[in-house]
C-alpha cells in the first residue's frame, strides 16, 4: 500500500510539472457555489490573476493511514509566480537536515551561533535580543520565519546552509524545477553566491564548531525567461519595461505543496523526497507552523499587530482576526510584488476534519511593480479567505468512511508570560 502510494506520488509530481494548465471539473463546480463577487471575479479570470489552486482531500483507513486525492485549478509549473517568503519553509528544513548531518551532539537547533562577514555586503550577527538566550540559533530563526515571516531569519538560514547545498539538496530530492538564488537583502548575484563564516558556541561562549565561508560554483539554468508587468520602479525612477524575475527564486506551487506534505505526512512521500529530520524536529516544526505570534514568549511579538490569523491567509477575515475554535493551520505564506501564496494543512480537532490547500494569486491592476500599489486588501486577501472557507465548508459536510485520529498534530502551545519586556513590532517581512 505504501509502496504503491509512493509510486503514484512520484508519477503525479514528475509528470504533472511540465503539462499545460490543469483544471479539474470538480473544483469548477465547487467554486460556482461561492457567489461572493471578489471570489467569482478572480475565478472567472484566472489568467489575469495568475491564480493557481491545489486542494487535497485526505482520507484515513481503519488504521488511520492517510491517502491523498489532489484537485487542481489552473495549475501550471511553467507559469511563474514569485515565491517570496514561502521559500523559508524549505530553508528551515534544510537547516535542520544539515544540523542532523553534522551528527555533533553539542550542535543542535538550540545551540547559540554567530555569523561573521568575509565578502562584500555580508553582515555580522552575534546576538539576538528576541531570543531567551540572547543569541541567534536555528530554532530561533525558524520561530521568526514561521510566526511572522521574518526576512533576516531566512537570510541567516540561507547563509548557514549555503547556496550550493540548498539547490543540490532540493534537486536531489526531486524538486528539479526549484531554485534558490538570493538572500532577502539587496545583493548582486555574485554576492549571493558567497555565504558567511558561521560558528556555534557552548553555554560558556566557547566556540565548539566553525563553518568557513563558502562559494557556490554551480551554474543556474536561466533559459526560461520570466518577465511580468508593464514597468517597475528602480529607486525613484519608473522603468517602462517588464520586471525580470528570470534569476530570482522559483518554487512551483505543486512543489511547495509537496514539501509541506513531506513534513506533515513524511511516510506519504518516497524516502528520497523526505528531509532528514528527527522526531523532535517534527514536533518543533508542527508547533511553530501552527502557533500564533501572541502565544509566543521568544520572540515576544505585539499580539495586536501580529494577530492570530496574520499568516493564515485562508482564515484571515478582515473583520475578525481570531481563528475559529478547534482549528489549527500548519502552513507557510509569502507575499511580494503583488503575489500572495499559501500552502496549508488544516486540522479541525473539534469536527475531526483535515485537508490541504495551496494557492497563489497575483493582484497588480496597474501592472507596475515596486510601487507598493497592490490589491492585497481589496482582492488578494478576500479571495484567499473565500477560497479557504469554500473548501472548509465543503470538508465539514464531506462524508468519510473512517473518522481521522488527529492526536499526532495536537500541540501543547506556549502561553504568553506577563512580563515587562517590550513587544516586538514592525518586523521586516
> Would you identify the CATH architecture?
3-Layer(aba) Sandwich
The residue ranges in which pLDDT falls below 50 over 5 or more consecutive positions are 1-18
Mean pLDDT: 95
- CATH topology grouping: Beta-lactamase
Structural class: alpha+beta
Overall tally of structural domains: 1
Which strand order does the major sheet show?
A: 2-1-14-13-12
How many DSSP E strands? 15
The H-level CATH homologous superfamily, spelled out, is DD-peptidase/beta-lactamase superfamily
Distance between the termini: 42 Å
Structure description:
This protein is an alpha+beta fold. The chain has one domain: Beta-lactamase (3-Layer(aba) Sandwich). Helix content is 30%, strand content 18%. A 5-stranded antiparallel sheet has the order 2-1-14-13-12, sandwiched between helices. Helix 4 runs antiparallel to helix 5 (138-147), helix 4 packs across helix 6 and helix 5 (138-147) packs across helix 6.
Descriptive key words:
disordered N terminus, globular, 5-stranded antiparallel sheet, Beta-lactamase, 3-stranded antiparallel sheet, alpha+beta, about 425 residues, about 30% helix
Would you summarize the structure shown here?
By secondary structure, the chain is an alpha+beta fold. 30% of the residues lie in helices and 18% in strands.
Write the layout of secondary structure elements.
Blueprint: H1 2-16, H2 25-31, H3 37-44, E1 52-60, E2 66-73, H4 88-102, E3 112-115, H5 138-147, H6 151-161, H7 163-172, H8 189-193, E4 194-195, E5 198-201, E6 207-211, E7 214-215, E8 227-228, E9 231-234, E10 237-239, E11 243-244, H9 253-264, H10 279-290, E12 327-336, E13 339-348, E14 353-362, E15 368-369, H11 376-397
Helix pairs in contact: 4-5, 4-6, 5-6, 5-10
Amino acid at each position: 500500500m505504501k509502496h504503491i502510494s509512493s509510486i503514484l506520488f512520484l508519477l503525479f509530481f514528475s509528470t504533472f510539472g511540465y503539462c499545460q494548465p490543469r483544471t479539474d471539473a470538480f473544483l469548477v463546480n465547487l467554486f460556482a457555489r461561492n457567489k461572493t463577487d471578489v471570489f467569482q471575479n478572480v475565478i472567472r479570470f484566472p489568467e489575469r490573476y495568475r491564480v493557481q489552486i491545489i486542494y487535497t482531500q485526505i482520507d484515513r483507513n481503519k488504521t488511520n493511514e492517510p491517502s491523498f486525492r489532489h484537485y487542481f485549478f489552473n495549475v501550471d509549473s511553467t507559469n511563474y509566480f514569485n515565491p517570496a517568503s514561502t521559500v523559508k519553509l524549505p530553508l528551515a528544513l534544510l537547516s535542520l537536515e544539515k544540523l542532523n548531518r553534522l551528527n555533533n551532539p553539542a550542535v543542535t537547533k538550540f545551540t547559540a551561533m554567530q555569523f561573521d562577514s568575509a565578502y562584500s555586503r555580508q553582515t555580522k550577527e552575534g546576538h539576538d535580543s528576541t531570543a531567551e538566550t540572547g543569541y541567534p540559533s536555528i530554532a530561533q530563526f525558524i520561530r521568526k520565519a514561521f510566526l511572522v515571516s521574518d526576512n533576516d531569519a531566512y537570510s541567516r538560514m540561507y547563509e548557514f546552509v549555503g547556496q550550493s547545498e540548498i539547490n543540490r539538496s532540493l534537486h536531489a530530492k526531486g524538486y528539479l524545477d526549484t531554485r534558490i538564488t538570493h538572500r532577502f537583502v539587496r545583493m548582486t548575484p555574485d554576492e549571493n553566491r558567497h555565504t558567511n563564516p558561521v560558528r556555534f558556541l557552548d553555554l560558556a561562549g566557547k566556540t565548539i564548531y566553525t563553518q568557513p565561508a563558502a562559494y557556490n560554483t554551480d551554474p543556474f539554468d536561466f533559459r526560461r525567461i520570466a518577465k511580468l508587468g508593464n514597468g517597475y520602479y528602480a529607486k525613484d525612477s519608473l522603468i517602462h519595461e517588464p520586471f525580470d524575475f528570470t534569476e530570482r527564486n522559483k518554487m512551483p506551487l505543486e512543489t511547495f505543496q509537496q514539501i509541506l506534505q513531506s513534513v506533515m505526512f513524511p511516510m506519504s512521500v518516497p524516502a528520497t523526497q523526505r528531509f532528514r529530520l528527527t522526531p523532535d524536529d517534527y514536533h518543533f516544526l508542527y508547533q511553530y507552523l501552527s502557533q500564533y505570534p501572541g502565544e509566543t514568549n521568544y520572540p515576544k511579538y505585539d499580539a495586536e499587530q501580529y494577530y492570530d490569523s496574520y499568516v493564515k491567509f485562508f482564515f484571515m477575515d478582515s473583520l475578525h482576526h481570531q481563528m475559529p475554535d478547534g482549528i489549527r493551520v500548519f502552513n507557510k505564506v509569502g507575499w511580494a510584488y503583488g503575489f500572495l501564496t499559501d500552502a496549508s494543512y488544516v486540522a479541525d480537532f473539534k469536527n475531526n476534519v483535515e485537508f490541504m490547500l495551496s494557492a497563489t494569486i497575483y493582484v497588480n491592476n496597474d501592472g507596475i511593480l515596486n510601487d507598493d500599489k497592490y490589491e492585497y486588501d481589496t482582492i488578494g486577501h478576500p479571495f484567499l479567505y473565500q477560497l479557504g472557507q469554500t473548501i472548509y465548508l465543503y470538508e465539514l459536510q464531506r462524508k468519510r468512511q473512517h473518522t481521522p485520529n488527529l492526536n499526532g498534530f495536537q500541540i501543547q502551545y506556549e502561553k504568553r508570560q506577563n512580563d515587562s519586556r517590550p513587544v516586538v513590532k514592525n518586523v521586516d517581512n
